[in-house]
Amino acid sequence: MEQLLIGLDVGNTNITGALASEDGALIAKLHRATDRAGGSEAGLQRITEITGALMTQAAESGAHVGRIGVGFGGPVDFERGVVLLSHQTPGWENKPLRAQLENQFRTPVVVDNDANAGTLGEWRFGAGRGVNDLLYVNIGTGIGGGVIANGRLVRGAQNLAGEIGHIIVRRDGPVCTCGKPGCLEACASGSGIGRRGSEALGRKVNGKEVFALAASGDAAAQRVLDGVIEDLAHGLGVAIGLLNPALIIIGGGLSEAPESQFLEPLRRAVPRYCLAEAAVKLRVEPAQLRYDAGVMGAVALAMT
Ligand SMILES: [Zn+2]
């Protein structure tokens, strides 16, 4: 009997599930919105509905689902398959998601955070194919990331490896969501850029507007972006010093910014923050999976 995989991307407001072949080719995709007000119970209900529907589809085609991978938008105890919390949705504290799904669907389940899932997805199916040492950095509202070293995902002692967003790049910088001042996430995420832009321009702007203003020649907006790129290069330089990656993949909303405004100046800035030798062969490239990044990451988790 043909064996298939299910990947589930569980975000704060959206849950996407995919049925895929054993080598990761997409067969079907299902999408449901979940309201935060419903808490974890509403989220679990959606997860169950999507999984059930994909299991049925697999059965109808004469196949069976061998494994389910779940990428969750919040910290996860990987060893125990337990969601530790969601920063946005109440009720997820210490939820044994793996055990619940395994009991319900009688199928092995892997649960990890969405940053690790995204890293595995880009490595298996995206910009990182064939590269054994890479760093994945997702820059959106926040900054997350993951590490592949020697051809393996690095989890660390508490599944917190790759949390590049909380490397401190400016000790006198703005306070981060984690409570510490000057984290890379506070300085260079989409929301960080919006805040820096708003301060510099004296009116409320978001990150996208800062890019647009800089493109139209606004010198203050350009100075903000210059500062953001230095901070990002600083954070990446710290990671390069530890990991010596061959490739840094930039995903998330910021990877959609024009290359001339973002990736090109970032490539020029990075060598200022690491050993010259470590920068020679290093490539900095945009992620490739874009809209399917979350769910393909979850499929990649199911393959591990
Ligand atoms: Zn932080």
Determine Rg (CA atoms, Å). Answer: 20 Å
Q: How many E-type strands? A: 12
Taken as a percent bin, the fraction of beta residues is 15-25%
For the record, what CATH class of the largest domain applies?
Alpha Beta
Please give the share of residues in helix: 25-40%
**Main beta sheet:** 5 strands, mixed
Order of secondary-structure elements:
EEEHEEEHEHEEEHHHHEHHEH
Shape: globular
What is the first-to-last residue Cα distance?
Answer: 20 Å
For this structure, the CATH topology of the largest domain is: Nucleotidyltransferase, domain 5
Assembly status: single chain
Structural class: alpha/beta
Bound molecules: zinc ion
Describe the structure.
The chain has helices at 39-60, 97-105, 114-125, 184-188, 190-201, 207-215, 219-243, 263-269, 276-280, 293-303; strands at residues 3-10, 14-21, 26-33, 64-72, 76-77, 82-83, 109-113, 134-139, 143-149, 152-153, 247-251, 283-286. By secondary structure, it is an alpha/beta fold. It has two domains: 3-118 and 292-303, Nucleotidyltransferase, domain 5, CATH 3.30.420.40; 130-287, Nucleotidyltransferase, domain 5, CATH 3.30.420.40. A hairpin with a 4-residue loop joins strand 2 and strand 3 (26-33). Helix 5 packs across helix 6 and helix 6 (207-215) crosses helix 7. It is globular and about 60 Å long. The structure holds zinc ion. Residues 166, 176, 178, 180, 183, 185 line the site of zinc ion.
List keywords for this structure.
304 residues; alpha/beta; Nucleotidyltransferase, domain 5; 2 domains; 5-stranded mixed β-sheet
Give me the secondary-structure topology.
Elements: E1 3-10, E2 14-21, E3 26-33, H1 39-60, E4 64-72, E5 76-77, E6 82-83, H2 97-105, E7 109-113, H3 114-125, E8 134-139, E9 143-149, E10 152-153, H4 184-188, H5 190-201, H6 207-215, H7 219-243, E11 247-251, H8 263-269, H9 276-280, E12 283-286, H10 293-303
Parallel strand pairs: 1-4, 4-7, 8-11, 11-12
Antiparallel strand pairs: 1-2, 2-3, 5-6, 8-9, 9-10
Helix pairs in contact: 3-10, 5-6, 5-7, 6-7, 7-8
Residues 166, 176, 178, 180, 183, 185 line the site of zinc ion (ZN).
